[in-house]
Design a protein that fits this description.
- The chain is mostly helical and 449 residues long.
- 79% of the residues lie in helices and 0% in strands.
- It is globular and about 60 Å long.
- Mean pLDDT is 83; it is low at 1-28.
- Keywords: Membrane, Transmembrane, Transmembrane helix, Transport.
- Residues 41-449 form the Major facilitator superfamily (MFS) profile domain.
């Protein structure tokens, strides 16, 4: 048993030299264990995130039709997109701290059921004020979902697996774009007039019900931790615990308490880095259908099909970048490089958004950078946070970062309304992304792995 413990340290080489072959054998078994855990958890969490992102961004398709019904301008639409993050930001930290008390299983189920019901209620909005209220309520309902799952995954997997695991989870954004666009486009093209409802009302109804059902399943399917997982043996639970505990050994810079994290400058550098990522997400998630329509595609169904292309390319780029980041154990420069790719896409979008091929190429570059940054970014806070500091700080970083999701749509919407195209907003997004790449690359250069 002592040999097994020695083999499970972070390096895997701390056992006596005479037992090195035995240590290697245990390490292989350990890697197989984490592979089995990933196969058990990731597909379900992936499905949850796909549904989450579809319900968050289907507004970009619905607004193609409901603008006239609600009397919305581009500026008021951008404001409605942005106010979602008011409730999201205010309730994200409390939600993650509550997760530490009641467990991830009940937290994820609560969030999914509430956001599904609020999403369904969007079908009843009749004017801009109701639209804003519903969007704020949706943000409150969803608060804590993404940082909660990030924290949940870091409590299962050691650092060497995290970029790969998080990329598999973040792949949900891409799949939501690949599947959600065509589905939303089909609903808008075919459901108008069903039982006297507009097509955009059917969109919110049909895409709001699945998260309620999946949220209820989460209560049964998800364990709160490895210690409560019935499908792990006592020995396997001990292996997971020792692997995670080993990450804190030998690090003088690790923060274990939320109060200490609040005073640490690296938390706020990370928050700024995440703030800049959300600008790329706003361009991709909330303006892609409009860009595609401006590029000459008129039919909603066709817009939905074309909108899947950037997400598909972005998913491939993200998987390659994440695997390379894990293989090299390097995070900050990977993040910075991917942010610059998104910035280049935003510049291309600004200069040639009215031409079909350059517009799709610009959106694809934005998607590559955005998805890759999102997956790689969350491995950075995990290098210096643990315990309650991890749960609270991940939510704090996400909350501050999501101020970008509040400001970006508002700014881009206002600039688009004033100039009648997305160029100015794209250039502004590119500038913000360059700032984020520079700050993470420079400020985190001495980051301990």
């Amino acid at each position: 048993m002592e040999t097994t413990n020695g083999a499970l340290t972070r390096s895997g080489l701390d056992g006596p030299p005479s037992e090195s072959m035995k240590s290697d054998s245990v390490q292989v078994d350990t890697e197989k264990l984490f592979g089995r855990i990933a196969r058990r958890l990731i597909p379900f969490l992936f499905l949850c995130y796909v549904l989450n992102y579809i319900d968050r961004v289907n507004i970009s398709f619905a607004h193609l039709q409901f603008r006239a019904d609600l009397g919305l301008t581009e500026a008021s639409y951008g404001l409605g997109v942005g106010v979602f993050y008011i409730g999201y930001v205010l309730f994200e930290v409390p939600s993650n701290l509550l997760l530490r008390r009641i467990g991830p299983r009940r937290t994820i189920a609560r969030i999914m059921v509430l956001w599904g019901l609020v999403s369904v209620s969007m079908m009843f909005v009749r004017n801009p004020t109701q639209f804003y209220i519903a969007r704020i309520a949706l943000g409150i309902a969803e608060a804590g979902f993404f940082p909660g799952i990030v924290y949940y995954l870091t409590s299962w997997f050691p650092d060497r697996h995290r970029a790969k695991v998080l990329s598999a989870f973040v792949l949900g954004i891409a799949v939501a774009g690949i599947t959600g666009g065509p589905v939303s486009g089909w609903i808008l093209s075919n459901a108008d007039g069903w039982h006297t409802l507009h097509a955009w009302q059917w969109l919110f109804l049909l895409e709001g019900i699945p998260p309620v059902l999946v949220g209820l399943v989460a209560l049964w399917y998800l364990p709160d931790s490895a210690a409560t997982a019935k499908w792990l043996t006592p020995e396997e639970k001990a292996i997971v615990a020792r692997e995670l505990q080993g990450e804190g050994h030998g690090s003088e810079h690790r923060i274990d308490h939320f109060g200490a994290a609040l005073k640490n400058w690296r938390v706020y550098v990370c928050a700024f880095g995440y703030f800049t990522i959300t600008w790329a997400g706003s361009v991709l998630n909330f303006w892609a259908p409009s860009v595609i329509r401006q590029a000459g595609v008129a039919n909603p169904w066709h817009i939905g099909l074309v909108s899947a292309i950037p997400y598909l390319i972005g998913a491939i780029g993200m998987l390659l970048a994440s695997r390379h980041s894990d293989a090299t154990k390097e995070r900050r420069l990977h993040f910075a490089g991917c942010a610059l790719v998104s910035a280049a896409g935003a510049v291309l979008l600004g200069t040639a958004h009215a031409s079909f091929t350059p517009a799709i190429a610009g959106l694809a570059l934005v998607a590559i950078g955005y998805l890759s940054c999102t997956a790689i970014f969350w491995t950075i806070p995990a290098t210096f946070l643990s315990g309650t500091a991890s749960a609270g700080s991940i939510a704090l970083i996400s909350s501050i970062g999501q101020l970008g999701s509040l400001s970006a749509p508002t700014a881009i919407g206002a600039l688009t309304a004033a100039t009648h195209d997305i160029s100015a907003g794209s250039y502004l997004a590119a500038a913000v992304l360059v700032c984020g790449a520079s700050v993470i690359a420079v400020a985190m250069r001495n980051m301990k792995r």
